[in-house]
Batch of 4 targets.
Target 1
Amino acid sequence: MEEKLVNPEFVEFVALVYHEGRNVKQLFRHNAASKKTFGQLADLPPDPGPGWDRLIAVQQKAAGTASAAEAENVFKEELGCSLADLAAIFGHAAWHRVPGAGGARWAAIANSVIELGASIDKKDDAATTKLIEEIRLMHHNTGTVKDKLARLKATRR
């Protein structure tokens, strides 16, 4: 029997949350984020295209896993922080000093991606389908998740 791989959209959503999380370096100067927790993530390139390109290998590795928890763990091992860490830091008030990055909308997106992972691992197909559609349409600082993913994918060469 063939083992089913984790949902590829989940992996993309996780990558997108980590991609936005690379902006955490801007919180270091406000002493609002831990370099120990977020230092590896902050080392991703600041420009969106190169930052996304660096996450491609992590996505490919995560896509080969059999569960959402395993896929998330690939990102955590590679980048030093969890989705829960990202959801918490996105909720930090210091993002108000960094316009156009992070903040409450990204905290909501991260929490929805966490919820999606749980529904995938519970094999709750109805909740998974609903959450995927909701996450695609969630708004962040400059548009929707769906549009941001499309822009990032277009930067690939």
Target 2
Amino acid sequence: MTSQGPGRPSWLRYSGIGIEFVAAIAGFALLGYWVDRRWNISPWGLVIGAVLGLIGGMYNMIRESLGAFKAPEDRGSQQPPSKP
């Protein structure tokens, strides 16, 4: 199994991206729902919140997926010594 970070498998990193995507949508949708209840502007707060969550989630997902295809940076002394 290849790892992207110190002791962290790659599948864990990519499953976290999906969780962050859903969390961004849900968080902004809940914020929009609260705005709807507070100022009685239903359904515009929920719609705007969901759209903002989609935009933020997509931005994060695209940024992370593009970073996955970059070549690993030289870590210098952080890499473990090679075995003879």
Target 3
Amino acid sequence: MSKPRLIDSKYNYALSQVFGSSLVKKINDTKYEQDLQILLKNSNIYPKNKRWDLVQGLELAYNYLRQNYRCEYVYMNEIANQLLLKFHNDNSATLLKELASNSSIADIVIVNGSTIAYEIKTELDTFDRLDSQLESYQMLYDRVNVVTYPEAVETISKKIDGAIGIIVLDENNELITIREAGFCRHKFKPSKAIFTLRQIELVRAYEQYIGKFPEMGTGLIYDFCHEWFLKLNSKEAHQIFHDALKLRKPSVHQFELISNCKPSLKMLFLGKELSKNYCGATLPRLGIFV
């Protein structure tokens, strides 16, 4: 595919937002699609004399961003394709995005046999909060990686803990490991991990470890679970944390959508729970009939 060109770089930011949460929420909204069509045609991404096709428009937009303006979605989507779906195309591993993690938000966490956090620093980012972000993740996850661009490696290497892995998205948009992440499970802190867990996950863990959950007022449940969780030893708490995150994997219907959509769209439908009705309506919108 030839490299698309913009008439004016003022459209770069608007194009980077195409793959944001609004697209996930409004992909079945015809008005939103019309606005998207106008943006892609005005920015010279989509030929003005060509019949409109939603999926082709999104493909052209993604191709442009990969080559010209590598926003966070590009990095996330390449992680999804190259580190998750390439090796776990059977829904055996779980990818979570923008996950509350101690005092920070982890861009991506992949859970399989272990928990691995990925902090993305694109060409468009600063490194101001990087130290505190990585410190937060090390209290929760087994391994932590920074994913960045080649020119940032030297600066980041000097700035971060030697146990943090470094992965670059190279000029060909291939993810290359520069430094393997060390194992940091010994830093796991249940008092920090509990705030990432949902109440229903804590109740489920209590019933698995102890037995039937005691009857109590709804307002008392979280405090009860919090107190119980913090009395566990670190190994037990870590196992509960791992298992809870692993169970947040996509439903059968969501994974069907992820498996069949174009590679450029994978990250749109990963990391957050999507309903059966949403997935059923979105499949045909993307020209997928299964």
Target 4
Amino acid sequence: MTLSAALDAFFGGLAGRLRQAAPADARSAAALADFAERVAALPGSAAAALEPQAPLPVCRHWPAALAGLDAGWARPLASLAPALRWTRNPNYRRAPPDPDFLANYGYAVIAGPADGPAAPIRCETLALGILLLGPGTHYPLHSHPAVELYVTLSGDGDWWRDDGPWQAVPPDRVIHHESLAPHATRAGASPLLAAYVWQGDLGRHARLVEGN
């Protein structure tokens, strides 16, 4: 699968999942429908080649995360792998929440603004990518100005939103975080992989907040 075809397949699958989820979630229906149309409009044909990059430590969990994917996600993401440039929030690099966090956390931007991390697709109104957490990793309570949607892809994980409590969320579920809503994630026994989409203030990174 070419890079352009892999991107189109990933964007199409993500948009389709958001459209499917919208009617069942009255609270988030409008946001899901809007995000779906924006994701569907991203052009895989506009992908640009990126400079090679040494993998982050979390990338050792990538093969296991891919192995846990549904076939509809596995093929495009496996084809996208060479184009992914993994990075970490600079706020966490400066002050990790625990000694092992940075070795088990990372994200890759697939579409995003020119002043953000390297991405094969440039988009000034949307940031989209994938989050990878190693087994047992606790991504503690944090918030950011951008509105965010997650689609869980593989791994068993628990998710916290607003005042909680923790909720187990299996793969192929959609999670909506309003602007500045505190939220957290913890991976289970296998790596956790999720697609994310941001809209709104794309320039400010998430910051940890006191809580769980």
